[in-house]
Design brief:
six-stranded antiparallel beta sheet; single chain; 23% strand; alpha+beta
Amino acid sequence: MRSAAQVARLLTLVPYLQQRQWVDLADVAEDFHVTKEQVLADLEVLVMCGLPGGLPDDLIEVDLEVARDEGVVNLRNAPDLRPLRFTRDEATSLIVAVEAVREVADAATAQAAQRVLDKLTDLVGDGTPPVSITVDAGDDAVRDQVANAIEQNQRLRLTYDGVARRETTSPTVDPVRIEVRDGASYLVAWALERQDWRTYRLDRIADVTAVGHPAEDHGLAPSIAGWFDGASDANIVTLDVDAEAAWVAEYYPTRDVTALPDGGARIVLSIVDPGWLTGLLLRLGPHVRAVDPPQAAADALAEAAAVVDQTPELGRTGSCKPVAGAFRD
């Protein structure tokens, strides 16, 4: 008995070969993500398939010797097949992918993606599960400007609200592409001031200005890292937080979350950028009960202490010295 995967592949292989004459065996294998040996095994099954009756003119014809010896496939006398319907999983995967494209595309591409989604929904019908994709893609106008600059190979000046340094900067960049990682869209670009590749979250780009200069070729841009890329056991941080800060476990990817009896939470995070953790701790403030290891909170404590020193009236209400790993005053 043939596997369900092979049957599905054969049903797709017939129309594929009908549209191609004398196609290379290696190309077929690459397009179907299988080995050449698997394609030959599929062809051996195909020559036993065809219309009812089993007469010579009823069966699909493939010259197996030519396929084996010369690596070329030619299919003849194959019946017309009705288009395959998507399985539930296939439909969901395709709709999710198109939804993600629509979320980060420029206006024209977003409209095209919507038309594809409408057709997919009509084709699949009620069997399609509801899908909702949310990508932090920033302002539509900013995204369109960035996409146009990439297409037209134009240099840009950004107004960028950075989180790690908690300041607004104005980098001049040669934009290359937009990528989506971990639910957010990023501009991959060459930063002129830093003379290196940088990524900028689109939802943190407040404004874009074309500088009237073509972007230069800086070679192949690297793919951006995902949230956990580069993370290891050495940079895992555990936060004990009040109930008011438990939203962190829902908003950011976590290693582990444990509910505490009083409504708080113990949240285990992988930290790739220490600056991001500093910003998070300062944002949460007194709702952080403890940080493990304690040194992970050192920068946040130092910045908080500096603010207290510069504002004497704050010093009368508390201190910023950690006690047994605690971050709270």
